Amino acid sequence: MGWAIALHGGAGDIPVDLPNDKRAPREATLRLCLDLGVAALNAGRSPLDVVELVVRELENCPHFNAGRGSVLTTDGTVEMEASIMDGTSKGCGCVSGLTTVVNPISLARVVMEKTPHIYLAFDGAEAFAREHGLETRDQSYFITEQNIERLNQAKEANRVQIDYTQPQPIKEQVIPNSEGDSQIGTVGCVAVDRNGNLAAATSTGGLVNKMVGRIGDTPVIGAGTYANTICAISATGKGESIIRNTIARDVAALMEYKGLSLKDAANQVTANAPKGTVGLVAVTDKGDVAMPFNTTGMFRACAVEDGYSEIAIW
Amino acid sequence: MAKWAIAIHGGAGVDPNLPEQRQEDAKRLLSRCLQIGVDALKANKTALDVVELVVRELESDPMFNSGRGSALTAKGTVEMEASIMDGRGRRCGAVSGLTTVKNPVSLARLVMDRSPHSYLAFDGAEEFAREQGVEIVDNSYFITEENIGMLKLAKEANTILFDYRIPLPGADTCSASVGSLVPDTTLQMNGLPISIYSPETVGCVVVDSTGNCAAATSTGGLMNKKSGRIGDSPLIGSGTYACDLCAISCTGEGEAIIRSTLARDVAAVMEYKGLNLQEAVDFVVKERLDQGQAGLIAVSRNGEVACKFNSNGMFRGCATEDGYMEVGIWE
């Protein structure tokens, strides 16, 4: 059988009239990442290598909410998180609270391969990154004008929200839609090689205006990322919702325990989550691909060895 | 009217040679905490309230590895984590990297009830704690003499040690060699001879008289862990899970629990395969924990309770409305 790959740059309220200057660079990056992933799979690289290198590329792109271009905390800082999982061994690596590590996904992989632990966070993770010589840059490297703007708008919206004195349910944090930029971002990649080995990786800057120290679904195995010998999943959307619904694990669980196909499992999981909160990409050991979302759009791309490929937003 | 049920644990993986006195002390603590939960259930408290108050009690006692009595990081400090989940609505809250919060499980609940998020960690969590006015103490409050001694041994053995409660003869000097004190090297837990491994994490699961389930888990984590290491206890779906069908809290080798999303899987096989609670618990522990040692406690909305472990023993207690009440350590 042939390989398959799917990747995403975040699901959210992306309006169909997204201006070209915002749309073009993202589509270009999706295309670049897809090509890189495909080339690596054709060269016989392991799925773990493939998902890592694709997510690194997405992290380096300032237009997606991961690595450079991460959204900002309420303090105007960057706190990045990521996780990676090897479907064959079920090994996993997770990191949170990174502030200077250029490629969080690579640190997650080092945690998986070089420590007896699975998850390192904040100061401990930063120290670990230095011990292992990962590339680090000053905070300013990660912060973009766009994100400073997003943060200002979010703070303004919350201020306005309070002025209206409408009792909002506390979890309904209002995030304004600044020209359709996907506010609910994250990047991720899943891949299966010719031998049916699977891997998944997800990386993010989190939620705009999040509390310092807030951890979302991305580094939580079973929520934002999951891989076993049957399928690999990377999710994106409202972190709090993805955690409670154990989105990534549920896609695999429906296949394993209820015998559903990937398509049915993935659709059921996204349909059951509150509207506008979830999107995911998934592949199986048989080379099936699914990319459902219940938001307006999701930046995504996929390819299978027999030649089919797709790059899409809505 | 549903029937209530409650289960608690104080960790999985126990030395078969644990001194009688230690066993009695542990069982006494388990009985006391179980009774507190039972009394609260009889007074019609909600499942969520009960799991919180029982875990607070377990955190406050230095015997088990959570709150006071937590295992120490490589730096000799305490970093605690916890999570709580309300089966009704599947709301959840989690915290990691706490150093001064007296009751981590209560802060996890506040994250769930009073913040827009589900999980807060380290400095951000500590700041939130102060904003919320929870009880704050110095890090030294959580550190016990025993654990200081254990950390020394762990460093000498240069390996991760889960926890240690048994004073080894001759272990009062730094140069005490771990190897020479280990009588039985055949039984292991996370690469350590079980005689110098002792279980970690505490937890509680409850179904109340309205049929609602809740779960809570709390821990200091691994002895000699790297600062910043997060285990399974604060991870929803791994160490803790609750939905309208059931509630689960796990303990044991954290990495194994995460890989197998143990808590979620119990509920998933009930939901998707139609297994009942005991079948689900048996299946998950038998089939899902490949190469890992762990245990779990679970309740269902029907008032059933189940405990299972593939490790050598698990400190636990269960009680149901029928009058059944039992604490135990071994199989």
Describe the model.
The complex is a heterodimer of chains A (314) and B (331). In chain A, 34% of the residues lie in helices and 23% in strands. Chain A contains 8 helices and 12 strands. Chain A has helices spanning 20-42, 47-60, 104-114, 122-131, 145-163, 239-244, 247-258, 262-272, and strands spanning 4-12, 80-86, 91-98, 119-121, 187-192, 198-204, 225-227, 231-237, 278-284, 289-290, 297-304, 309-312. In chain A, helix 7 (247-258) crosses helix 8 (262-272). The two termini of chain A are 29 Å apart. The relative contact order of chain A is 0.21. Chain B is α+β, with helices and mostly antiparallel strands and 331 residues long. Chain B has an 8-stranded mixed β-sheet. In chain B, strands 10-11-12-13 form a 4-stranded antiparallel β-sheet. Chain B has a two-stranded antiparallel ribbon with strand order 5-6. In chain B, strand 7 and strand 8 form a beta hairpin. In chain B, helix 2 packs antiparallel against helix 3 and helix 8 (262-273) crosses helix 9. The relative contact order of chain B is 0.21. At the A-B interface, strand 3, strand 4, helix 4, helix 6 and helix 7 of A face strand 3, strand 4, helix 4, strand 9 and helix 7 of B.
